[in-house]
Please model this.
Amino acid sequence: MSSRLSAWKYVKNNKATVAVLVTALAISFMAMYVVYVLLITTTESFETIMVKMPQRLSYINLGAKAYGLNPDDFDNNDELNAAFEEKREELVNKLKNTKGIEDAFYTQIITSRYQAVMGEFNFEMPLMEADQVQGFLDHMDASITDGKMPKEPGDVLVDETIMKNAGYKIGDWYMEKWFGQTFRITGTMKSDYMVSVGVPNGYTNSGWYIVVYNDENTTDMVGILEDNGITISDEDEVLDAAEYLRNYKELCTDTIDAVISTIFTMIMTFLAILVLVAYVSFLRNRINEYCLYSSIGYSRGDIYKMIVREMLILFGAGTLAGLIISLGCAFLINLSVISPKGLVGHVVYMNQIFAIITTYVFIIGVLQIPVLLSLKKIRTIDAIEE
Model:
């Protein structure tokens, strides 16, 4: 026959059934997309601290063995400590004279915290004398946005993003649960590296480190230390770009990607089974209709094309509805959750949209099996009477 079977007739005449399938596809799309948006926020938010910041700032904490000192060679701890301090000062001077390193000094640090939707990351905040703070700001391309420079013991400048993330305001005690009423926020600062800085207050700290102002060409602190005769062991701590990147990959991206993949697979599997069962029932109920089409002159190919067009209409509508709902949810999540907490997030993630559409195409492919099996049952008008 010359006329083509319409794919719209069934859609128009079976609005309830079509609505259920389209709704299931839309909700599944939304679930896979929203979960991705929430989880990928952690990866994107931690990138600044764990990837960008170490390009400008490194921390070194070495034991006596790294300097070639053997405690058995000294009569008492005072002699060992004196030798240790001498070696450490010698290393600091060598680092200062290394091309690409702006400054290096030995000082206290305190631990700061940045919390994302999934997990949190603890990082270092250097403490230094008040007259050194401006040099730190200059090196980190940072500027004060509110409040005043730290001058007194315990004064700290905190990055705006960290302030939002923890719900701080100027005058609050910083990390009070960890350090008590020791460090008070005197101002906020802004930097592309999300760093904070403060002035020591006695000896309340998270350790003593050599703080290094490096650049993009001097991020390999382990290599630089080895060039200066330092042997690194498991007892030593070198927090440079390579170490941060390793932690970022192992603790953040790999973990988040695994969780996203698991959830995505679960939703996809559930959806595929649900749609497959629904479509088998859907086809079984229409076998007489297909027999009728065959009896009045339409070929199995014509009927197959009609079924495929119907399928594309349903999946197209479900995908479009799911995309619109998902982008709306992502916008609201960014507006109400991500942005107010100082986290990094976006509304549109083309890679995830493409992944979901690819999944739907795969499901359409799987559905060809029951469709072809149903077409084999088409004979003549006699099949209707049976």
In short: The chain has two domains: 8-47+250-385, 52-242. The chain has a mean pLDDT of 89. The two ends are 26 Å apart (CA to CA).
